[in-house]
Amino acid sequence: MSRTTGPQGPVQAGAEAPVWDRFVRLFHWSLVACVLFNLFVLDDGEPLHRWSGYLASALVLARIVWGFVGSRHARFADFFPTPARLAAHLRALRSGELPPQRGHNPLGALMMLALLALVLLLGLSGWMQGLDAFWGEEWLEELHEGLANTLLGLVGLHVAAALLMGRLERTRLIRAMVTGVKQRW
After folding, report:
1. How far apart (Å, rounded) are the C-alpha atoms in residues 45 and 49?
2. Distance between CA atoms of 118 and 108, rounded to whole angstroms?
3. CA 72, 76, 82, 88 torsion-angle sign
4. What is the rounded distance in angstroms from the CA atom of residue 39 to the CA atom of residue 148?
5. pLDDT tens-digit readout, 43-96
6. Using CA atoms, how far apart are residues 166 and 39, in angstroms rounded to an integer?
7. Which of left, alpha, beta for 65 (phi over 0: left; psi -120 to 50: alpha)?
8. Distance (Å, rounded) from C-alpha 98 to C-alpha 169?
9. Sequential DSSP letters for 7-44
10. Do 103 and 78 contact (CB within 8 A), yes or no?
């Protein structure tokens, strides 16, 4: 068995580590459903589209709260992408010696925060479109559409990065978001 030392201690190939709690996994897949339904199934501006957007925003707000009071790897303090953490992670990427991360790696954390911010901005811009003050404003509709397209692009990058980092770190990342357990191979 190969052995690597990560930031939270030794990690062995074949070892399993509980990482994502039930709330984080439920949040993640519920948000995925809201985003996919709003982008590909529901008609723009229809009541179900709006309510799905509000639900997505409420999920993000709940996740932000959980980032302060939740389990260890759900807390922002465990993975917040400080400049030092990002620099160390980028150096490790360049050198090809990536220590496995128990929670989010710094680039994954940056992506997660960007996705959460985009969902909130989409919720806000969608809500604003229903206000009398902004009704029919083309710039707001274009902003909302641009944010949705940016979200779609970042989601694609997020999925590709999870697959790539899973290979590089030899960790089953996608499975971990279903089971809550990271497993090295």
Report:
1. 6
2. 15
3. positive
4. 8
5. 988 999 999 999 999 999 999 999 999 999 999 999 999 999 999 999 998 998
6. 27
7. alpha
8. 6
9. TTEEEETT-EEE-S-HHHHHHHHHHHHHHHHHHHTSPT
10. yes
